[in-house]
């Protein structure tokens, strides 16, 4: 009988605990309805985010950048989701990049590129890491999007990591960014 009484007492405490928890949740919801509506009305939340980005672009960009750095896996997944749900925009982005590359002034030969690799001792121009066939990329010091050319004087060897982080920055801007994050 004692075990049965303990079990019933435990059950009643558990039920009371759940009821109190639900009451607290209801009270919280009632006092924070407007904030909770963002979850109910995602379009309203998106609009609020758009307005924030318009009013505080530098702050919003810094927050987004920090989030991407702190959550690389979630960021990659988010980009993949966006690309999957916006195939037309992705196609336009890739076509623009290909157009710039194709129409940029200048070109280089394999001999010139090999000489450039030897000049940099087969190391990344930015971080100095050893380059191999998996990590080597051609970086445009002055990005094509900013009027750079495909002449060998504008090209340097870079690892994939540095080249993708540099994105459309000049070497000076990229190195300042690296110094700021150290």
From TrEMBL:
GO terms, molecular function: endonuclease activity
**Family annotation (SMART domains):** HNHc
- Report if keyword Hydrolase is assigned: yes
HNH nuclease domain boundaries: 111-164
**Keyword Hydrolase part of the UniProt annotation:** yes
Q: Which InterPro entries does this one have? A: HNH_5 (IPR029471), HNH_nuc (IPR003615), NA-targeting_endonuclease (IPR052892)
Q: Supply the alphabetized keyword list.
A: Endonuclease, Hydrolase, Nuclease
The name of this protein is: Putative homing endonuclease
Q: What is the lineage of its organism?
A: unclassified sequences, metagenomes, organismal metagenomes
């Amino acid at each position: 009988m004692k075990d049965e009484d303990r079990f019933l007492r435990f059950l009643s405490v558990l039920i009371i605990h759940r009821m109190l928890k639900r009451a607290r949740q209801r009270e919280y919801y009632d006092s924070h309805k407007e904030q909770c509506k963002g979850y109910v009305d995602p379009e309203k939340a998106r609009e609020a985010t758009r307005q924030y980005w318009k009013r505080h672009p530098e702050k919003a960009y810094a927050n987004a950048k920090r989030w991407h750095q702190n959550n690389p896996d979630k960021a990659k997944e988010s980009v993949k989701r966006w690309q999957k749900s916006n195939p037309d925009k992705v196609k336009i982005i890739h076509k623009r990049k290909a157009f710039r590359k194709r129409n940029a002034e200048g070109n280089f030969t394999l001999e010139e590129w090999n000489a450039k690799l030897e000049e940099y001792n087969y190391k990344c121009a930015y971080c100095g890491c050893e380059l191999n066939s998996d990590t080597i990329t051609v970086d445009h010091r002055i990005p094509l999007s900013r009027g750079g050319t495909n002449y060998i004087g504008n090209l340097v060897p870079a690892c994939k990591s540095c080249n993708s982080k540099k994105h459309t920055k000049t070497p000076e801007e990229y190195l300042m960014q690296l110094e700021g994050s150290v």
